[in-house]
Each structure stands twice: as C-alpha cells, then as structure tokens.
Amino acid sequence: MNDTLPHDLEAEMSALGAAMQSPTAAALVVESLTRGHFHRPSHQVVFEAIVSLVDQSITVNPLSVKAELERHKDGGALVDPLTLMDMVEIVPVVSDIGFNLRRLENQRLRRDLILSGARLAALGHQGDIDAEDLAEEARKIFDRVTGTTEKSTASTLSELISPFLDRLESEAPDIGVTTGWKDLDGLVTKLRPGQLVVLGARPGMGKSVFMVNMALHVAVRLGQPVLFASLEMSKDELLTRIVAHEAKVTLQNLQQRTLSDDDWRRVAKKTAELTAVDHLIIDDNSGTSIAHLRARLSSMRRTGEPAAIVFVDYLQLMSSGRRSESRQQEVSDLSRNLKLLAKDMDVPIVVGSQLNRDCEKRTDKRPLKSDLRESGSLEQDADIVVLLHRDDAYDRESPRAGEIDLIVDKHRQGATATITAAFQGHYSRIADMAGDGWSPSRGMS
Fold first, then answer.
1. Are 309 and 347 spatial neighbours (Cβ–Cβ below 8 Å)?
2. What is the pLDDT of residues 336-357, one digit of tens each?
C-alpha cells in the first residue's frame, strides 16, 4: 500500500460502519462504491464482505460481516474483529453517509489521476501508434478515471416494451430537434439522437447555408446547445453569414463594409441579440478529427450543456489521422466513425459531403445519393440523406430561379420526397416556400 497516495481512512471506516448499522446505508455503499474507493486493504476486504451479504439478502451488521470474513480465511486474517467495532463506533450519525461517499469518490479520483499519469506517460513514449489511436486510448484512460466508461447497452425485449408504451401514451414532445423548415419537418419530424444525416451537394450549391440556417434555428429559436465544426470557413466568415441571415443584410454589403444607415440599424439590433447566444459553439480547427469532436462533445457534457446537434462542414476536409490504403477507405472510416460517435454521444450529427461530377454530366443534373463523393459507405451509414439542387446554378435563365430542392433521397424511418424552398443566397438564407407545405399525398420522389 502506497501511503503517499491521497486517501481518507476516517471516511472509509465511517462508510463501512454506517453500512453495518443501517440497511439503507448498506445499499448506498454497495451501489455507489467499488473496491477501488478504499485505500487500506483491510477496508477493501470488509467492503467485499458487505457486498456479498447484500447480494445474499443477509442483514449487514458486525456479526454477519465477521462470519462472512471467516468464510474466507485470507480475508479474516486481514481484519481484526475489534476493527469492525471501531468502524461502527466512529460513525456519529448514520445519515452522514452521503457526505462520506462524496469524500471517498474525491480521494478515489485523485489516486486514479496520479496512477493514470504513469499510464499516459508510457502511452506517449510508444512511437508506433497513430495520432487518432493515441487520442482514443488517452480518452479511454480518462473515462475510466472519471467513471464515464460505457455501461451495458444490452436490453431484453421485455425490458423495452414498457418504456415504449409509456412514450406512446406520453404527451411530452418527442426527443430530437426540428430543422426549421416546415415542409422538411413534416417529412422527417425531428432529427433524433444517434442519427447521422448526410447533406450532399456540388460546390456552391448551398451546403454551408443550409447548415448555418439550421444551426441558428436550433441555437436561437429552440435555445439548445449546438456544436458547429467548420473545416472550410473561418469563424469570421461564418459570423458574416450569421449576421447576414439574422439581420437580412446582404453578404456583399457586409464583406465590403458598404452598409446603409438602415443596414447598420438592423446589424446593431441583431448583434445585440446574438451576444446572448452563448450555446452555439463554433470550432474552425482545420485539423478536426473524430477524437477532436468527441473531446469537444465530452467537454460540453461536463459543463452541463450537452450538444443537441452537431454540424460538420464538411466530410472530405476531415482527416482520420491514420494511414489508409486509399482516400476512399479513409472517408469510409470517417463515415462509420461519425455514425458511432452519434450513437456514443447520443446526438444527431449533420455532415456535409461533396458530390462527384457525375450529376453534371447527365442531362437531368439532379443529384442522386450514388453521387456521394469517394465513399459508398456514406449512403450505407446515413440515416437520412438530403441532396441539394438548384436549377439556376446551371441555367441563370431558369424559370425556377431562386428555388432550391431539398431532395430527401434516403430516410431510414420514413418516406422520401423532394421539397422545394426559396434560396436567398445574398442573405445566406433558405426559406420556406409560401403554400400549404408538404403532405404524404404529394411531393413524393
């Protein structure tokens, strides 16, 4: 036993003594603590005896613990029976159990941090591990220390039925976030935790506009935390688009700083409102990886504001940080890992993706999900695929100038459809079209 490590023997004895006086305290000790919470080996042995008694539904008291220890001769040799009485006598008030449990967790965390430092140092000296794998191993060590390791995700069918019926009967709103476009929400209802949504388009078609609009809807209109990872545009470029969208001032006027008095009034009004939006997190790290996203999401969760949705603009600019046989394989790995990240962190992820040039070679230039660039696995991993198309991007004289098609080409939980919206690129805005909106009886593709 290394007595230089942080420990609190009084708290250890008090917790065990309380467990031997109260069934409620015994249950709390068994549910809240592990062997690792106890620094002294004899205290570890007593704790395991208490766990065994609780598991057998035997009342926990000094006599039953003594008998349990004697069943295991090695453990009995470690613990003097008088020590059990000392543990009971040291407890002034059994109701203080919660305070002692917190003291023990504090000391366990400190010990584990010190011990994990050596493991992290050894990991850092291993030169044959890719940066992505190195970050993942370090995260696992940290998760073990902080107690955030994954719990079992397995459930029996019988365990799932009752919560399912409760959700059907509940009047509470469904989990997830709306997109902000009436017709699109009529089709997909909400983007739900664990979903991967792929937004595909050719360059200049409106991917970033779509994602910025939706991020503002969730952060400003719904008031929920958002993480926006921008690998293409800087924070300043994104902020210009945000102000253009909110203030309805043209991007050109903002970029050239040729604002009229009316423009200034609208900009001043909206920027004053936007200063209160402290839960839209913009990260323009050009080296963003899966590990970087995971760390950022974990940080948001620890601060008490877990992200309601994540945007990644865009996939082909990401790097996995490891060697791959081809760029196609690397993008496939990124796609799969984004889906796993969405599930692990319980958050929907919207990722932009470039389309290849095949759609531009066709007479009908409307994109297909098979046009997703560099990876067929994107189509496979995605729960929803939305493709963007504008006729006027190819023909300025098109009668459909100013319109954008939101082509829902894959929808794992429902129908697909083509939804038409208004594209106001000068304001960095996509708006609902006037009319009755989408319904299942029309608009199908």
1. yes
2. 889 988 988 899 999 998 888 8
**Whether 378 contacts 335, CB under 8 Å:** yes
- For residue 20, name the pLDDT band (cuts at 50, 70, 90): very high
Architecture per CATH, domain 9-109, reads as Orthogonal Bundle (1.10)
> Per-residue pLDDT tens for 40-75?
888 999 998 898 888 777 889 999 999 888 887 655
Among all chains, which residue has been given the structure tokens 């200063």? Answer: 275
pLDDT for 442 equals 33
Dump strand ranges (E) for 160-307. Answer: 196-201, 226-230, 280-283
**Euclidean distance between CA atoms 200 and 378, whole angstroms:** 10
Exposed, middle or buried by CB within 10 Å (0-12, 13-18, 19+), for 154? Answer: exposed
CA distance 398 to 390: 10
Domain with CATH 1.10.860.10 in the chain: 9-109
DSSP string, 112-173: HHHHHHHHHHHHHT-TTS-HHHHHHHHHHHHHHHHT-PPPP----HHHHHHHHHHHHH--SP
